[in-house]
Write a structure and sequence with these properties.
Blueprint: E1 3-6, E2 24-27, H1 40-62, H2 71-81
Parallel strand pairs: 1-2
């Protein structure tokens, strides 16, 4: 494993398990759509929003020029991607 991304804000402060290969980690928190209360439409919107946010971040991640970046630059990039939300997409 090369990368581990946490997405649950509750997990952000937890100690991650030891992963083989000591992957680079970053927190890409998104609101938990399963925690949304309200109508079915409200819940659907929450899941759609979480999906879009993660889809955008993954797209940015796979577009990184990994071979041209050192590990510090990669870590800065993946941490920055975790700060991107739907408003900036």
């Amino acid at each position: 494993m090369d990368f581990v991304f946490t997405v649950c804000d509750n997990a952000a402060g937890e100690v991650c398990p030891v992963w083989p290969g000591q992957p680079m980690t970053a927190h890409w928190g998104v609101p938990d759509p399963a925690a949304v209360r309200g109508s079915d439409d409200d819940k659907r919107k929450a899941f759609t929003s979480a999906f879009r946010q993660l889809q955008r971040r993954i797209s940015l991640f796979v577009s990184l020029p990994m071979r041209q970046l050192d590990s510090a630059a990669i870590h800065r990039e993946i941490t920055g991607i975790g700060r991107i939300d739907d408003a900036s997409a």
